[in-house]
Amino acid sequence: MDFKDTLLMPKTEFEMRGKLPSKEPKFQERWESMHLYEKMLEKRAGAEDFVLHDGPPYANGAMHIGHALNKTLKDIINRSKFMEGYRVDFVPGWDTHGLPIENAMQKLGYDRKKMELAEFRKHCYDYAMEQVANQMKDQKALGTVADYDHPYITLQKEFESRQIEIFGKMAMDGLIYKGLKPVYWSPSSESALAEAEIEYHDIKSPTIFVKFNVEDGKGLLNPETDSFVIWTTTPWTIPANLAICLNERLEYALVKSEKGNLVVLKELVDSLWEKFGLQEKEILKTFKGKELEMITTKHPFYDRTSVIILGDHVTAEAGTGCVHTAPGHGMDDFIVGCKYGLPALCPVDEHGCLTAEAGDFLKGQFVDDANKTVVMKLDELGALMKMEWITHSYPHDWRTKKPIIFRATDQWFASIDKIREKLLEQIKEVKWTPAWGETRLYNMIRDRGDWCISRQRAWGVPIPIFYAEDNTPIMDEKVFKHVAGLFREFGSNVWFEREAKDLLPAGFTHPGSPNNQFRKELDTMDVWFDSGSSHTGVLVERGMKFPSDLYLEGSDQYRGWFNSSLIIAVAMYGVAPYRQVLSHGFILDGKGEKMSKSGGNSVSPEKVMKQYGADILRLWGASIDYQADVRVSDDILKQCAENYRKVRNTFRFLLANINPEDFTEHELVAVKDLTDIDKYMIIKLNEVIEEVIKSYDEFDFANVTSTLTNYMTNELSAYYLDFTKDILYIEAKNDPRRRQVQSVLAMCCDALLRLWAPILVHTAEEINDFFKPGSESIHLQTFPKTVEIENAEAIKAKMERLLLIRSDIFKALEEARAEKVIGKSLEAKVLVNLSEEDAKIVDEMLGGKFAQWLIVSEAVLTNTALKAYEVCSVAVEKMDGIVCPRCWTVHNDTNEHGLCDRCAEVVKREYPEFKPE
Predict the structure, then answer these.
(1) How far from 533 is each of 153, 362, 544, 594, CA to CA, in Å?
(2) How far apart are CA 914 and CA 903, in angstroms?
(3) Of 110, 444, 865, 895, which has fewest CB within 10 angstroms of its CB?
(4) Nearest-CA neighbor of 243 among 146, 172, 345, 391?
């Protein structure tokens, strides 16, 4: 038998290596088979509800790293709220209508133009459900807990029915109308787009300066010699020009040149003449813009006039101060054109090609090709003053990544103007994190136009409008309710399976249809109307808390889901659908570059989970400042894995020293019976509990992880666990001092485990299996409560003074080690000169255990003058004596086998049969 056999060494089967990729699926299977989500609801029956309403990701393709971050953050919030005592009802959602699935179907060989719409939509439905199943599997692999048996999907009958009810109420309240307006039009998608479906990219465009000759100068200008010079970056819109817009307050000049007398903004004359390469320059007259109103000019191509009108949107920042105005191709142009009764001329079809209305020389040309034709024609006619290329920001279709155009078409709109003030008022009632979110959404709502909600798509919720024989759109509450009922029973496909007459209530008549003939609208709703209705389709439909406590999505959703949800909720209920909005940033690679598949720098969550495990991905998500743009790379994940290893190994040490064979609840020492040294650890643990729970409440997960990690690294591993090894391993099993230390370890393990549980979900469950064998799940517990400790502040003050003394002594030990006076610290005898007050603290707090606390063989208090440090004076000597073969301290005791007195006593009492080999 060896002396090491008499030591109480750490013992646990909790593995040092996490092996997360192989272990995590087993925990997920356990949670699913035990119905963890349902058990969590049962556990909190009657408690206050907390509802985080899930923004639905689009059901197409595998989960990307942005989704993984989003779902992780939501899961951490839901689990932390549950552990705070709330009943957490979380319904995961999916957005399923729209162009991406239509495009996917085309790639699979389903041509919507060659089959019945109802049949095509059935294929879309089946594909969408497959995608939902795949993404649900991805989300479960992250360790998330949710009502996966009852998700919400925007194609569900009850969801679509609620959407029709919303449309009906808004229509009856006068918030829905049909109108001819320029809208964002995507030739690549062949559909109108909403503002939320637009993103901006730099493109290179031809910019042209064009002469429009005066036709009727109203006595101010001469048709024979005078012209206005306009400027545009879209030459293809010149065929739709009906006016030239000036600012009534700005000063314009008629300037003589070798190319005739030209009207431009006076302050731009010099720069424009230089640009045009003109030599002759004489200002003949000046006018305020208002004086030139209603002068007419001749269109360069066609036998029609372009009138001079006035608008506030005209500035001196660029161009000539004379703005080319095509009401069919721009909202500013359309608005100012309406004031002057100008039609929204739009000689461009849904494919982005010029129509016959633009003339034979342009008919059939795509807008980009038409640019070149228009420029050449203007040059040929002598109307082109200058053409140059500029790079500027231009709107693109966010799905196809191709440029859009502005095109006037008949579309359905939701009025923002009528509820704008209420929307702005409600924004102020919401708590925004980060705070700038309020300003961002406020400005968007303040400045946005009416919402174009119609789409020329097959796969979507149909706009529930019927037309009478005289083409009057029918807005009738009974009709809307009837259609909502049909959708609830049959789903929205019924709209495409039945004739209009079979979709209307029995016996329905309308004065606009004397022959009882009706037709139905074929456009579908903007998918943002779908997801924006989710508060009603889910929370109201299922009797959940409304408004919800929280919406959490990426910062792009200020123009998307946060925006559309607010509009629809205020239109329906007069209130915002959320009490708080929290947003996270975009994910960049390790160098801060935007991620893209083509760039080869994207990070696959599936790959990360297979290599490191979901808990590492979750730890990454909880360690970053997610409210800003964040970085992820293999190096960053390796650092997370290293941090995880430290946390895991600290837990392993705790478990190994309180394993069930050695320590049970019966051995737990009451806090009041602990030493002050031990109580200090509980005082610090109390601070951690308070700080962590507060941080969870504030969604500051980076502070959660840093607070927990710092306590485990600094207070536990580097301090308490270091000096108490001598107690845990060396003292007798039931030694009161050992049981005190084990009690501290047990209390720390219990509290830290529960505080880590919302983040390290799989590891926490694994630890719990060892810490409390046979218990159901760590995820059915609550956060730890703080423990009241008498004289806590006084203990803390004394302990902080002790730690300063320890720091000085450790510096002296390090110097002695560097000077080869000692090797290991147990070879040292430490002499310490303390103030009377400090000496009293050492005696009160440590008694005769000063050396053990310092991990040296002897510590002597002396009045001798020694080398001064920050708070005390210290000298380090090599300890003379023999090394105890059991505890390794150097001593001068005279026991058999060279044992120190302590070890000799323990061996004699605990191991009477012991005989060393």
Answers:
(1) 12, 43, 15, 31
(2) 12
(3) 865
(4) 345
The CA distances from residue 624 to 354, 619, 702, 703, in Å, are 51, 9, 6, 9
Cross-strand bridge partners of residue 845:
none
Each residue's pLDDT tens digit, 788-805: 999 999 999 999 999 999
Residue ranges in 296-419 assigned as alpha helix (H) = 331-339, 367-380
Using CA atoms, how far apart are residues 776 and 765, in angstroms rounded to an integer?
Answer: 9
Taking CA atoms, 7 is separated from 731, 735, 908, in Å, by 8, 13, 13
Give the bridge partners for 395, in sequence order: 200
Q: Is 307 helix (H, G, I), strand (E, B) or coil?
A: strand
- Return d(Cα 330, Cα 323) in angstroms, integer: 12
Return the closest-CA partner of residue 720 out of 674, 660, 773, 670: 674
Residue 540: closest CA among 514, 571, 573: 573
Structure tokens at 727: 């107690």
Please state, in angstroms and rounded to a whole number, the distance separating the CA atoms of residues 275 and 264. 13
Mean pLDDT lowest for which of 193-207, 320-334, 709-723? 193-207
Buried b / exposed e over 104-137, threshold 16 CB at 10 Å, is bbeeeebebeeeebeebbbbbbebbeebbeebbe
- Give, in degrees to the nearest 5, the angle at Cα 607 between 591 and 644: 75
CB-CB contact of 105 with 537 (8 Å): no
pLDDT digits (tens, 9 = 90+) for 75-98: 999 999 999 999 999 999 999 998
Residue 579 burial (C-beta neighbours within 10 Å; 0-12, 13-18, 19+): middle
- Give the DSSP letter string of 496-553: HHS-HHHHSPTT---TT-TT---EE---EE-HHHHHHTHIIIIIITTT--SSEEEEEE
Interacting residues of 889 by C-beta distance below 8 A, sequence separation 6+: 826, 857, 883, 900
